[in-house]
Structures are given as structure tokens and as C-alpha cells.
Design a protein that fits this description.
The protein is of the alpha+beta class. 46% of the residues lie in helices and 17% in strands. The protein folds into 2 domains: 41 residues, no CATH class; 78 residues, no CATH class. The chain contains 5 helices and 6 strands; from the N terminus they run E-E-E-H-E-H-H-H-H-E-E. The strands form 3 sheets. A two-stranded antiparallel ribbon has the order 1-2. It has a two-stranded parallel ribbon with strand order 3-4. A two-stranded antiparallel sheet has the order 5-6. The longest helix has 23 residues. The two termini are 29 Å apart.
């Protein structure tokens, strides 16, 4: 994300994102070598992970997921069934179909991995295993 990207299908160019680091300016300095005139300044914030930050992030994600504010893609099996209901989907080669379904497959894997996490409390910190 710190380098410009080109969409191969549309040819659209996406600018690179600048990084800043709050108290970790030394680490953010490393990303300055990627800056161009198109850089979106301060688009990403660099955070060093720690137990309190991890606990807070996990609690926030759980809250947002449970409230419905974060929505994930549909399950890969449903996406495949819907794709195969279309004429274009039926005409796709297996490789093209796999490429189209990749985001749905990765989302299904993410969902499965998140459900497999076990939560333990260690003082005020949440430990995920």
C-alpha cells in the first residue's frame, strides 16, 4: 500500500499511502523513501502491538461485528451458487471462476479462523488462542 497500484482491468491508477507513526516516528521514517508526488499523506497510522492495544482492538472488532456495523462478504458456497445461476458464470473457465470467487473464499477462511479463536482473560487483557 506504500507503492502506487494500477488496476489491470480498468487501467486506473491508485496513489500510494503515506505512513505516520505518532510516537514511533523512527519506524514511520522508513516509509518516507516510498513517497511520491501522488502520495496520500498520513493515510495509514503505524501502531506497535502490545497486550492492551490488542485487547482493545479485539473488543472493538467484536462490538462492531455484533452490532452489524461490519459486514463481511457472503459465504463462498452461496457466492458460487449465485454465480452459476448466471449465464456469465456458467461460461467462465474454472480458473476465471476461482479468481472471481477468491475474495469470498478468503472471507470464509477468515470467518472460520475467527470462530476458532478461544478467548482467555489475563488481568484486564484479553488473550486469544
Amino acid at each position: 500500500m506504500v507503492k502506487p497500484q494500477n488496476d489491470e482491468e480498468t487501467g486506473e491508477r491508485y496513489p500510494d499511502f503515506g505512513v505516520y507513526g505518532g510516537t514511533q516516528e523512527d519506524a514511520a521514517e522508513e516509509y518516507k523513501k516510498f513517497h511520491t508526488k501522488e502520495t496520500e499523506e498520513d493515510a495509514m497510522y503505524l501502531i506497535k502491538a502490545s497486550a492492551p492495544i490488542n485487547s482493545e482492538a479485539y473488543a472493538n472488532v467484536q462490538t462492531q461485528l455484533n452490532s452489524g456495523k461490519i459486514k463481511l462478504l457472503i459465504d463462498e458456497r452461496i457466492a458460487k451458487a449465485k454465480l452459476l445461476e448466471t449465464t456469465a458464470g456458467k461460461k467462465m473457465t474454472p480458473e476465471k471462476r476461482a479468481e472471481y470467487l477468491k475474495p469470498f473464499t478468503l472471507t470464509s477462511i477468515l470467518r472460520e479462523e475467527m470462530l476458532n479463536l478461544r478467548e482467555e482473560n489475563e488481568g484486564i487483557n484479553i488473550i486469544l488462542k
